[in-house]
Design a protein that fits this description.
The structure holds two protein chains of two kinds. Chain A is an alpha+beta fold. Chain A is built from four helices and seven strands, in the order E-H-H-E-E-H-E-E-H-E-E. Chain A starts with 7 loop residues before the first strand and ends with a strand. Classes of the chains: A alpha+beta, B alpha/beta. At the A-B interface, helix 1, helix 2 and helix 3 of A face helix 1, helix 2 and helix 3 of B.
Chain lengths: 270, 99
């Protein structure tokens, strides 16, 4: 990995894994994005490039620094929702450790929690034509980030990786078959599990009023998986590919010791 | 999140500002329930001051759309921009609500 002096930064936060702390956590991530972008303007030519290439419709447009932040915040918000609502469902309040690292190449968010693990294979991808009301969180995460890794715990380690410079489009291509991924999760059938009759966008075959299950009373997607690369089951350090489609690989040290206070620091190494 | 409902004859405008996410979506759901109960025939969401939305917030808006349509009404969205606009496009809701 090529390291550009002055480009590296890291901020972290440890908060209870509860929705009440969602806005605080998002503020951290938003601030980290701004700091990363500021480091570009301060340290040299921006490596972050504009993207509005008219790629696949499922891509969030990405044509400014503001979009970079919006995409990262969108993805992280869904991740935090899932940890707070599903990861710690029925458990005593416990912390989630959030760390954001960046350099000129990428920005990486690492979330460490001790909540319930999940099986990504059990999560169906949303059928967008059916106008789903739930189950879109992971789709948003994947669409907004270049790579997502998940290692079931304890502790569970989720990494959201965003490249600072992409060659084309937003989503990485399907990963090689040799890696453990869940791209192939069966899409939800036309009539989904909430009784929606499916139908094309513009129709109104759904019509079901308010009937939601207990999970969905919280208004949170019930997806904690599918389309997520599993982090290799290394026990202590969490390292892995971070280059997404670029093919470059970087080692990203992630402390996963349960209970350890990750980062109340903000460092900038120049 | 703050919201303001304005009814003028058959037209309802619902202004939403701030953040519509897993934290605030339950509040909006009660507003949606009331709009449906009132059988409002035309609802316009004015979202120019909506700063951030997540899938939970989108779910409430889609629910509003489905339920109002089921009652024979219509839902329009105006003023969508920035992150909320990108999320709507990502989820292909721009085919339902031109944005």
């Amino acid at each position: 990995m090529t390291t550009v002096p002055g480009a590296y930064g890291v901020v972290g936060l440890r908060v209870p894994g509860a929705l009440a702390y969602r806005h605080l956590a998002i503020r951290l991530v938003s601030t980290a994005c701004k700091m990363a972008l500021e480091s570009d303007s301060r340290d040299g030519p921006a490596s972050h490039v504009s993207h509005d290439s008219g790629g696949p419709a499922s891509h969030v447009s990405h044509d400014s620094d503001g979009d970079f932040e919006a995409e990262v915040v969108s993805a992280f918000g869904e991740a935090f929702n899932n940890i707070a609502v599903h990861g710690y469902d029925g458990l005593a309040p416990q912390p989630v450790q959030i760390e954001v690292d960046w350099d000129h190449e990428k920005l990486v968010i690492t979330c460490v929690d001790n909540g319930h693990t999940f099986d990504p294979e059990t999560v169906a991808l949303p059928d967008l034509d059916a106008l789903p009301e739930h189950g879109m969180g992971l789709f948003i995460m994947r669409s907004c980030m270049d790579q997502i890794d998940y290692r079931p715990g304890p502790p569970n380690v989720l990494r959201l990786i965003k490249l600072r410079s992409r060659r084309d489009g937003l989503l990485p291509p399907p990963p090689p078959s040799s890696s453990r991924v869940f791209e192939g999760v069966t899409a939800r059938p036309a009539a989904d599990d909430e009784g929606h009759a499916g139908g094309r966008v513009g129709g109104h075959a759904g019509g079901r009023a308010g009937g939601v299950d207990s999970d969905k009373d919280a208004g949170v997607d019930s997806d904690r998986g599918s389309g997520v690369d599993l982090i290799p089951p290394a026990n202590e350090s969490c390292t892995g590919p971070a280059g997404g489609r670029s093919g470059s690989r970087a080692r990203i040290p992630v402390t996963t010791t349960p209970g350890e206070d990750l980062m109340v620091e903000s460092s900038r190494r120049r | 999140m703050n919201h303001k409902r304005i009814d003028i004859e058959d037209e309802t405008t619902l202004e939403i500002e701030g953040t519509l996410d897993a934290v605030t979506a339950p509040d909006l759901r009660t507003v949606v329930d009331q709009l449906v109960a009132d059988r409002r025939p035309s609802v316009t969401l004015e979202l120019s001051s909506l700063r951030l939305i997540d899938s939970s917030g989108v779910g409430v808006i889609v629910s509003l759309f489905k339920r109002i349509r089921a009652n024979g009404g219509q839902v329009k969205i105006v003023g969508l921009r920035d992150q909320p606009r990108a999320i709507f496009r990502l989820l292909r809701l721009d085919r339902v609500f031109p944005v």
